[in-house]
Amino acid sequence: MAQRDYYEILGVAKDASDEDLKKAYRRLAMQYHPDRNPDEADAEENFKEAKEAYEVLSDPEKRAAYDRFGHAGVSGAGGGGAGAGAGAEGFGGFGGFSDIFGDIFGDMFGGGRGGQRAHRGADLRYALDLALEDAANGTTVTIRVPSRTECDSCSGSGAKPGTSKTRCTTCGGMGQVRMQQGFFSVTQPCPDCGGDGEKIEEPCPDCRGTGFQRQEKNLEVNVPSGVDTGDRIRLSGEGEPGDHGGPRGDLFVEVRIKPHPIFERDGDDLRCEVPISITQAALGDSITVPTLEGEANMKVPGGTQSGKTFRLRGKGIKGVRSAKPGDLLCTVRVETPVNLSERQKELLRELEQEADQGDGSHPHSKSWWEKVREFLDRLAS
Question: Is the dihedral of CA 142, 145, 148, 153 positive or negative?
Fold first, then answer.
């Protein structure tokens, strides 16, 4: 029977990259491996066929010969695939399979060839509570954070001073062991040394063999003007130290704006409520309102209703990513007087009597009661 084209077997184009070939082979190896398909008669042949195709095409010289002369150019070069007998080479030479599955599961089990790799340290997060004024104007604050530092006693080795680590006898100092079951082979970190290749016989009493100690350190944080809740400030290299010589992680300072007694932030705008008297609302007035920069004047026209919002442009906050500051939105609340004297009550009654003469001094009230009467008349009809 004529042998199938190697590119067709792997399902890749003739210009496929080495990474494309590896991905295709991984997929087929997982799909057709005999251990995963004990009841599939064709699985073994399909697996050997994929293995042979990958072994040829992954070798630059063999691939060039195959591209030029076809199967004749690589006769006998395959690993005992579809065109060869099912002898010892068919499944005995599983180096390519072991290697490819070592790559597949290397990350899963934390391993890799040549011992334990250096790992970057973990990032840390710190919640920073800021006053609204500091967030708007920017500030510099000092924070105290826990830190994992190299043990002074053992210089980070983890071994008791005067002693040293010894070579792990389980993995021979390689940091890895190979587990094999049938045709399935996986390389994983050594269970005795944790992938380090060395063991500590006498741990350092100060760090208990970890090589690190917990301390606290002070850091200065430059807070830019305009930050808001949820913004993060990154301090590079101030996180946890890396393992096996890896770089430190980062510290992310997350901003949280504390509640303010007067203002409420709404993006770059500020909102506040301003109480005014009935007289100010009815006759109008020029009143003083607070801003983050001090006082400002705001004109209240006569006849202002409670809940009316006035905008003071540019009196808000200039955000970190904004081109100009927001506005201050002042909502007036007409305050009803309490604890009135008899004279004050008499004056209010006189005012109410004057208003009832139909001079239009309460237009909203008149309109509302007209709608109520219309509604009740419809219900009665």
Answer: positive
